[in-house]
Amino acid sequence: MYFYASIGDIRDKIENYTNTYHKGANFPDILREIFNEKPCLENKTPLSDIRSLLQMDDELFLQKIRDLYFRFPKTLIYDDEHFDVVPSASALTVINQFFGTRSFIHLHDCFEIDYIFRGECELSFLDEKRVLTEGDFCILSPYTNHDMTLLTKDSCIFPILIKEQVSDFFKKLLSDSAEPNYLLFKTNVSYEVRDIMKRLFLEKFRYDKYVDRCTIYWLNLLFTNILRNYQTYSQFSSYKSGPDYAPILRYIQSHYDTITLPRLSEIFHYSVPYLSKIIKKSTGKNFKQLVNETKMRKAIYYLEETDFSIEDISGMVGYSSSDHFYHVFRKAQGMSPQQYRKNYLDLNLRDKIPEQMGKDAERILEVIRGSG
């Protein structure tokens, strides 16, 4: 299930937060606020006339994209720990970076391509900082600590995130003799690059079965144009591919409710026996144990932190029947899901009673002193 949030609503919420608290906003928290205020956008797919946006100049284009709706998985409302920026069924995605969101050093298991559409931003890359300006186009390899911060409210970046297992072109590009982690192209505000970038960005809002195919097409066209016209680039540091098991484990943790070992082997292009060996070597557990433990952690989270029914939780964590969920949960925890929730709530209530009694006693003393 999905919910939808417009670019305009997200921008306004972030601006209100930064004006109120004078610090960067946490993006998932902003989405939760929007979801709570506009639950009507949960089950429909509002679309704008995307084709008309391509005919606009840059200024009007940036104004009108406020009306576009990003689609997010509903699970993000309750759990952002395992949120995949790139949807599980997609090879890549294009997003809009928002001014005023919290900056922090992070890394991805995918390639990140940042195009500075307008203004300036500061790239923190390993141990260095660099200001990128309008028309700059940079590529960051996976597993590289970095942060990209918009420097002005009017600045705009369209990051492209590409899964490592489908990005052989970029691996080759970033694996020459100099072994760079980071490539920077200066496109000098090229009209062609900006036009293709707009089309690539807008394609992600169509939400139909052709999206992935079209975005890959526009990405190939974009890089063909850049390599043809902008062969001078800067490169930094050394490319070091992440360990084989890192993206595999992260994928399991993000898709524990549906993933199977044969499907995992298809996604990462390993045989089932070799994939099993990687998982066992890196975790000490086999695939089934790893998935079951992940399901159990999520089930416990939902029992403790939400009021979802046991049947709903059973489906959310990937069990086809609630009877099977009951059996597995009881075997792992020594009690039924209902009893676990009751024990947790009772324990929390007992912890709160002394605290509340202390507050009540203080109020009574205040009354007595006042009457004296």
List keywords for this structure.
single chain; 372 residues; alpha+beta; six-stranded antiparallel sheet; 15 helices; 11 strands; 49% helix; globular
Q: Would you write up a description of this structure?
A:
This protein is of the alpha+beta class and 372 residues long. It has 15 helices and 11 strands. The protein has helices at 7-21, 27-37, 50-53, 58-64, 75-78, 168-173, 191-203, 211-229, 245-254, 261-268, 272-283, 287-305, 310-316, 322-333, 337-371, and strands at residues 2-6, 69-73, 92-94, 110-118, 120-125, 128-133, 136-140, 146-150, 156-163, 182-186, 233-236. Strands 3-9-4-7-10-11 form a 6-stranded antiparallel beta sheet, with helices on one face. A hairpin with a 2-residue loop joins β5 and β6 (128-133). α1 crosses α2 (27-37) and α7 (191-203) packs antiparallel against α8 (211-229). The protein starts with a strand and ends with a helix.
The largest sheet, given as strand count, sense and whether it forms a barrel, is:
6 strands, antiparallel
Q: In angstroms, what is the radius of gyration?
A: 24 Å
Q: What share of residues is helical?
A: 40-55%
Number of strands: 11
Contiguous runs where pLDDT drops below 50 for at least 5 residues: 175-180, 237-243
Q: How large is the count of helical segments?
A: 15
- Summed over residues and divided by their number, the pLDDT gives a mean of 79
Spatial order of the strands forming the largest sheet: 3-9-4-7-10-11
Distance between the termini: 62 Å
| Class by alpha and beta content | alpha+beta
